[in-house]
């Protein structure tokens, strides 16, 4: 594809999203989504940040119920509120910021950190894929499951590149995060993981952003290490998987 | 006023990296996701310039409220309900079971490799 063609395609994408956004239905559905999200945030805070009440789960339920009651199809909603999905692109680019901020830590800890993150980055997808393979699940599900431990925007993009399903990737990833955050105290007790740094790295690497939020509740050091695990594992996995498969 | 300019500059930077990533992927048919390429470009820019306050300002709300951006995608899962229902047990085992094991084993490795190193340096 030439530069001009690429720019034309990007321009067409942007104008399609802009057209949908500045329509009555577009503004209406964006507003409904934001209202649901604000309510979900309030509820999440009220519950002391319980992973069960992750804002995405509550927001999606609220919007889904509104769609059902107004007899609007999900495909129409996705067109009207297209800008919300489109913003994932710039948000993914913004993930470079925490990675850059934590770079000094990467240099200080060196291979000690890399080995720890690699353990989670390889174990989590390998175990999940093996489970689905042994239980005879379809190939698209197997491919999607490979990205379950990396942060949602990277998981959605990477899954599309390896023959998975982005929408399923989003659900698998969020579920993984919630499960990870909920079982953390028991798992760390059983496996005798006592250090804040070790707990943080494991949470960020295996349970991405939801795990990082949990680590931040535990201690500042655990939170910083979780952010590192999240960024490193997310970027490296999303680069390697499409090249490998 | 300066805050507003900082946001505008930061957004310009984020969008430029995003679009540049997309252009590169389309032109050279890279086997990489477009936004990830944009992320790598942004990382390169941050290293070359030694950080950028404007990008950090503009990126902060995006990162903090990323959850809401997944709503359209997550709702799209309804189309695959049949396949989730058919393989419910396999999916549950893959997500719950392996997350528990991976979390524990990763913690164990980090405890041995990383935590020990931190204790030594303190």
Name the descriptors.
heterodimer, A: 245 residues, mainly alpha, 13 helices, B: 122 residues, 2 domains, 7 helices, 0% strand, LrgA/CidA (chain B), cell membrane (chain B)
**Contiguous uncertain segments of 5+ residues of chain B:** none
Strand content of chain A: under 5%
Form type of chain A:
globular
Taken together, the total number of domains of chain B comes to 2
Instruction: Please summarize the sheet with the most strands of chain B.
Output: none
What is the share of helical residues of chain B?
Answer: over 70%
Spatial gap, N to C terminus of chain B:
44 Å
How many beta-strand segments of chain B? 0
Report how far apart the termini of chain A are: 23 Å
Q: Work out the radius of gyration of chain B.
A: 21 Å
Query: Number of helical runs of chain B?
Result: 7
Separate helix tally of chain A? 13
Tell me, rounded to a whole number, the average pLDDT of chain A: 90
Biggest beta sheet attributes of chain A: none
Q: Please write the string of helix (H) and strand (E) elements of chain B.
A: HHHHHHH
Strand content of chain B: under 5%
Write the element-wise H/E pattern of chain A from the N-terminal end onward: HHHHHHHHHHHHH
Topology, number of strands of chain A: 0
Provide the structure class of chain A.
mainly alpha
Rg of chain A, rounded, reads 19 Å
Mean pLDDT level of chain B = 88
Transmembrane segments (chain B): 7-28, 34-55, 62-81, 87-110
Subcellular location (chain B): Cell membrane
Membrane topology (chain B): Multi-pass membrane protein
Organism (chain B): Alteromonas salexigens
């Amino acid at each position: 594809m030439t530069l001009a063609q690429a720019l034309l395609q990007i321009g067409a994408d942007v104008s399609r999203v802009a057209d949908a956004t500045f329509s009555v239905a577009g503004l209406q559905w964006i507003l409904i989504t934001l209202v649901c999200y604000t309510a979900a945030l309030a509820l999440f805070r009220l519950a002391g940040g319980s992973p069960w009440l992750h804002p995405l789960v509550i927001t999606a339920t609220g919007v889904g119920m509104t769609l059902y009651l107004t007899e609007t199809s999900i495909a129409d909603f996705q067109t009207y509120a297209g800008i919300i999905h489109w913003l994932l692109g710039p948000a993914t680019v913004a993930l470079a910021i925490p990675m850059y901020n934590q770079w000094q830590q990467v240099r200080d800890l060196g291979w000690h950190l890399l080995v720890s993150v690699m353990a989670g980055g390889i174990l989590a997808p390998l175990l999940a894929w093996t489970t689905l393979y042994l239980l005879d699940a379809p190939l698209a599900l197997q491919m999607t499951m490979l990205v379950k431990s990396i942060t949602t925007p990277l998981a959605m993009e990477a899954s599309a590149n390896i023959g998975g399903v982005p929408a399923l990737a989003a659900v698998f990833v969020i579920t993984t995060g919630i499960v990870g955050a909920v079982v953390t105290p028991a798992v760390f007790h059983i496996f005798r993981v006592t250090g804040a740094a070790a707990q943080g790295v494991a949470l960020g690497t295996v349970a991405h952003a939801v795990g990082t939020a949990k680590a931040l509740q535990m201690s500042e050091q655990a939170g910083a290490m979780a952010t590192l695990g999240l960024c490193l594992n997310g970027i490296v996995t999303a680069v390697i998987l499409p090249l490998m498969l | 006023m300066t805050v507003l300019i900082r946001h505008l500059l930061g957004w310009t930077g984020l969008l430029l990296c995003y679009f540049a990533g997309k252009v590169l992927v389309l032109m050279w048919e890279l086997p990489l996701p477009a936004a990830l390429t944009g992320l790598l470009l942004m990382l390169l820019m941050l290293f070359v310039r030694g950080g950028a306050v404007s990008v950090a300002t503009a990126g902060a709300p995006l990162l903090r409220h990323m959850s809401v951006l997944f709503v359209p995608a997550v709702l799209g899962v309804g189309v695959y309900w049949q396949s989730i229902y058919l393989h419910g047990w396999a999916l549950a085992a893959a997500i719950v079971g392996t997350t528990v094991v991976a979390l524990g084993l990763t913690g164990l490795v980090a405890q041995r490799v990383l935590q020990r190193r931190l204790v030594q340096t303190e």
